Predict the structure.
Amino acid sequence: MELTNRILVNKGYRERLRVIEEYEADRIFCRHDMEHFLDVARIAYALDLERGYGLSKDLIYAAALLHDIGRAEEYRTGQSHDEAGADIAEVVLVECDATAEYIRVIKEAIQTHRGQDIGGLFAKDGKGDILSRLIKEADKLSRPCFSCQASPECKWPEEKKNNKLYY
């Protein structure tokens, strides 16, 4: 978990988290904080183990910690958080000495974690495709809609809400 722990102490990463926290201080809906990032990481890792994909725990956790890091940019400029997040993640990952392969697959996972297929990324097999799908699925499973007090005001349609406990 060397890369994951380098991300956790990265100055730019910590600053982005702080800014997201400021933007979401009065948010009644799901927040994009360390608790959410770790929930996504743990669920994605559990899915990986259950399905026998064999991805690195460090890769999964690094991607989960970074998957919503573009939220501050989205709040500030309106740019989608997945696009902004991929760019921010690349800077953080380079600063943290990630390999070129890790940077590529983590950026793909961030770009596609909301389900959109950017340039055919879901069309190929391999680590990037698996990681993208794990992060997307874990992101949704991490939300406890079944116990959320803001659920009646939530913009998610009922069929998208996570109303069961899986992990």
Remarks:
- The chain is about 60% helix and 0% strand.
- Residues 17 and 33 are 7 Å apart (CA to CA).
- The domain at 2-153 is CATH 1.10.3210.10 (Hypothetical protein af1432).
